[in-house]
């Protein structure tokens, strides 16, 4: 199923964002044409058999009134009882077939809705994962969650109910219209008279509802974004006693969503009463004019009975168009948002060169690299440095000097603007992204642990690892001791973002995760910045073991953790200003020397 979803996403024809949402949805659903046709045929057949009972009632009235002169009598069955038996048998068959096709269309449409919902969510999520980090900086997590969850659910609701309603109403109009014009052309125009007004009203309401529901989707996206942001920052909210303030902000967002819905409801609620008015004219016209035609002897009683019943079958279902149009407009507003996400271009593409992890030497070269975040001043300016394979280098500098940005550029989380970065003499833009990132293990100061067990978090990215391998990695990271004391050991749930563990414990799990990955290149981005001295000492001991025979880049503010590096680079405002060993830099007495004296308490 997953492979099918990925392939579908790749072969889907991208349409301009100005394309009507229904066409974009049909374009997306081209792989489901067989299921759509099956469901459509079952919906139409169900409606055909659903429309048969009025004809049977008319035939029964004709038998009772005309007896041997009825339509069935003219076919050769003159006995009234025999005619009624035939009608009864036909009724059983027709009602049975109607039930069969109702079951069939309900099952087909609902399964199709669930399938499209499932695969559309997967496609959207997979595409989202492929977008560069800059996209996530410009869009809130809650807004994206709203697209992946609520918007796709809106589409599922329409496919589940609305598509069948539209088909059955259309089938009713065509079939009943044909019956009227064939059987009683003199009164057919009365039943069909409301149709142009109903169709006109439907399109008029659709045009006016579309922007209102687009606004509803935008408001719910903003509200979800605020909710997600607040839940993530609940500790900050509590520590600053800002609960009342945040409750007011959520109330304002929720009220904006409510008012936006009210604006849409004010129009959508008027649809059904308007349609009922048009329907009333058609129904009363048939009842009055047709009755007078019977009295005048121009119309048979059975035919009149059928016309009255079938007119009701034609016109009253149109009242459900209001609900269907409501589902349709909500779904189209959501479709626009989902398709816009799917059509967001991927700015960063994988290269074609494969570099298996067992062939990586680990030599890194930054050559005249420049980079700036969108709309900001350059963070990296014409930077060049070489990191030999198997060596440990450190990068230090003030906050905002560009240290962590170098790591993001190396991982291709962002694309460099000028220059080149190479791994083992291959430009990283030419390497397959998966090979590049598998070769690099990152331990960040901002540790992210998933809601799950300790074991699952250590094995994240190394999903086939055995428990002994996980324990061995934890022992090297000096995490095994505290893990063993947890209530369920390696099966202990760490909570969302690891909130059940201390900062030092989280850091050591992150280190164990990198050790288990066993990458040829290890990046430590402020890995000891938020831990106590004891934890720092434990991490430093671990690093002495795991940095052997692998390229290591250590970014640190605490200079004591990197003093034994083979080379230390000092950055200032996106440029390299000093480099050398710890002792060489102290002799030079530049920026590094000043930072060392401050941290060591020397003046």
From TrEMBL:
Question: Per the record, where are the segments of Polar residues compositional bias?
Answer: 1-17
- The UniProt annotation puts the region (Disordered) at 1-22
What are the residue boundaries of the ABC transporter domain, all occurrences included?
364-598
Ranges for the ABC transmembrane type-1 domain? 37-330
User: Record's Pfam families?
Assistant: ABC_membrane, ABC_tran
Keywords, A to Z? ATP-binding, Membrane, Nucleotide-binding, Transmembrane, Transmembrane helix, Transport
The highest taxon in the source lineage is Bacteria
**Membrane topology of this protein:** Multi-pass membrane protein
Provide the protein's localization.
Cell membrane
Q: What is its main location?
A: membrane
GO CC annotations? plasma membrane
Q: Give the PROSITE patterns listed for this entry.
A: ABC_TM1F, ABC_TRANSPORTER_1, ABC_TRANSPORTER_2
The residues that cross the membrane are 80-101, 166-182, 264-289, 295-316
Keyword Transmembrane helix assigned to the entry: answer is: yes
| GO MF annotation list | ABC-type oligopeptide transporter activity; ATP binding; ATP hydrolysis activity
Protein name as annotated: ABC transporter ATP-binding protein/permease
């Amino acid at each position: 199923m997953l492979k099918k979803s990925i392939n579908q996403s790749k072969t889907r024809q991208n349409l301009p964002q100005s394309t009507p949402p229904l066409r974009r949805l049909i374009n997306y659903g081209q792989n489901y044409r067989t299921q759509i046709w099956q469901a459509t045929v079952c919906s139409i057949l169900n409606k055909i058999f659903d429309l048969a009972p009025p004809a049977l009632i008319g035939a029964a009235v004709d038998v009772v009134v005309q007896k041997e002169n009825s339509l069935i009598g003219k076919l050769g069955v003159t006995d009234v009882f025999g005619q009624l038996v035939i009608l009864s048998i036909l009724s059983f068959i027709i009602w049975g077939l109607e039930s069969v096709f109702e079951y069939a269309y309900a099952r087909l449409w609902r399964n199709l809705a669930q399938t499209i919902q499932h695969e559309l969510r997967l496609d959207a999520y997979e595409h989202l994962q492929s977008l560069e980090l800059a996209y996530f900086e410009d869009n809130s997590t809650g807004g994206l969650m709203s697209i992946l969850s609520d918007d796709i659910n809106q589409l599922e609701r329409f496919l589940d109910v609305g598509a069948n309603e539209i088909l059955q109403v259309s089938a009713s109009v065509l079939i009943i219209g044909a019956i009227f014009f064939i059987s009683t052309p003199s009164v057919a125009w009365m039943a069909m008279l409301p149709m142009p007004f109903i169709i006109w009203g439907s399109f008029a309401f659709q045009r006016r509802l579309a922007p209102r529901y687009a606004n509803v989707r935008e408001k719910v996206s903003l509200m979800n974004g605020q909710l997600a942001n607040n839940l993530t920052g609940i500790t900050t909210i509590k520590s600053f006693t800002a609960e009342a303030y945040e409750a007011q902000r959520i109330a304002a967002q929720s009220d904006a969503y409510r008012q936006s819905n009210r604006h849409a409801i004010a129009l959508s609620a008027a649809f059904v009463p308007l349609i009922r008015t048009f329907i009333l004219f058609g129904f009363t016209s048939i009842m009055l004019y047709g009755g007078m035609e019977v009295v005048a002897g121009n119309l048979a009683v059975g035919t009149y009975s059928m016309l009255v019943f079938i007119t009701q079958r034609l016109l009253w279902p149109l009242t459900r168009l209001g609900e269907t149009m409501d589902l349709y407009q909500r779904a189209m507003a959501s479709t626009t948002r989902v398709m816009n996400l799917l059509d967001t271009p991927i700015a960063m593409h994988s290269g074609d060169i494969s570099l298996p992890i067992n062939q990586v030497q680990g030599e890194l070269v930054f050559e005249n690299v420049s980079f700036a975040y969108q709309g900001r001043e350059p963070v990296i300016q014409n930077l060049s440095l070489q990191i030999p394979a198997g060596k440990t280098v450190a990068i230090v500098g003030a906050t905002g000097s560009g240290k962590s940005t170098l790591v993001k550029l190396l991982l291709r989380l962002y694309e460099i603007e000028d220059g080149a970065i190479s791994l083992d003499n291959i430009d990283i833009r030419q390497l397959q992204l998966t090979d590049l990132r598998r070769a690099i293990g990152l331990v960040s100061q901002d540790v992210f642990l998933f809601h799950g067990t300790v074991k699952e978090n250590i094995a994240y990215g190394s999903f086939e690892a055995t428990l002994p391998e996980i324990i061995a990695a934890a022992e090297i990271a000096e995490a095994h001791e505290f893990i063993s004391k947890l209530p369920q050991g390696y099966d202990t749930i760490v909570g969302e973002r690891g909130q059940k563990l201390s900062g030092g414990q989280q850091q050591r799990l992150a280190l164990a995760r990198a050790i288990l990955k066993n990458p040829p290149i290890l990046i430590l981005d402020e890995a000891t910045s938020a831990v106590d001295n004891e934890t720092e000492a434990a991490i430093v001991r671990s690093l002495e073991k795991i940095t052997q025979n692998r390229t290591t880049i250590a970014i640190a503010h605490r200079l004591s953790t990197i003093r034994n590096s083979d080379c230390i680079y000092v950055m200032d405002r996106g440029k390299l200003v000093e480099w050398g060993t710890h002792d060489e830099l102290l002799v030079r007495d530049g920026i590094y020397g000043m930072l060392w004296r401050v941290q060591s308490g020397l003046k």
